[in-house]
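Board notes (copied after class):
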Amino acid sequence: MKSKEGTITVRTSKEIVDSITKLAESMDRSRNWVVESALKSYIDLESWQVEGVREAVLEADRGELV
């Protein structure tokens, strides 16, 4: 059975690591939880924006400009 999880490694500044650590401690969560939550939020937002731009381009291509 294959794992449904994957591993990534990110190199970042000590300040960001410290901020993640402090946030995780204040929320009584793991750093992994904080990072995964942040990534999910970022992916949701970027996906929404990319889809909106894609739809706008398709509308423009069809001459449906306002």
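Comment from the instructor: The two ends are 52 Å apart (CA to CA). The helical segments are 14-27, 31-61.
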